[in-house]
Amino acid sequence: MERHYSLASFLTVCLQIRKKDLADGLSRFMLQERKTMAKITVLATATNTTKTTITAGKHSIIIDEPPLFGGADEAPSPVEMYLASIAGCINAAGQWIAKEMNMDLQKIDISIEGEVDGSKFLKNNDTFRAGFSEIVTRVRIVSDSEPSVQEAWLQQVRERCPVIDNTENGTKFIMK
Predict the structure, then answer these.
(1) At 76, is the secondary structure helix, strand, or coil?
(2) Could you read off the pLDDT of 111-131 as tens digits, one per residue?
(3) 33 vs 8: CA distance, rounded Å
(4) Residue 175 falls within a domain, yes or no?
(5) Total domains, the chain
(6) d(CA 51, CA 65)
């Protein structure tokens, strides 16, 4: 028999069970709720050029390649947009987490560099992978918070940013 609990009921039950079972109970509760799941869809169109017009929700994005890769350099390249999405995610997660922690976050500066070898893309050379061999991210913040709070904040940002998670943990990719 399936049961549904309000959050208050769930917490009352959790307080009655052993402490070591609390995490398991919370995980089961969150799996039942699944209200935090979101399906993200992006649509893209291109004609006979490397310029790609993308629709993401109500927003339009243009991506293009530099001339070396056959483009007109009219917009950021796909790999630049990938790094930009990491920066955007760090900021979004960082702002959210700072509020959760009651942390005074006045400013975030993010610098991201990635090293990619174009020989796989240009020549189908199997010596190197097509993607980044390394991504180095530097995050500098202005905050009156203690250094230990800032370190805890940065760790939470790294663990909770979906784009970093996809980068570090290899999301299953299906192409049809």
Answers:
(1) coil
(2) 999 998 877 777 877 787 888
(3) 14
(4) no
(5) 3
(6) 7
Write the single-letter amino acid at 57.
G
Residue 47 token pair: 């004609």
Looking at the fold, whether 59 and 70 belong to one and the same domain comes out as yes
**Whether 50 and 91 share a structural domain:** no
Report how many helices (DSSP H) and strands (DSSP E) the chain contains, helices first.
Answer: 6, 5
Expressed as residue numbers, the domain containing 13 is: 1-37
Q: What is the pLDDT of residues 23-44, one digit of tens each?
A: 555 555 555 555 667 888 999 9
DSSP letters of 94-159? HHHHHHHTT--EEEEEEEEEEEE-THHHHH--TTS-SSEEEEEEEEEEEESS-HHHHHHHHHHHHH
User: Rounded to two decimals, what is the model's pTM?
Assistant: 0.75
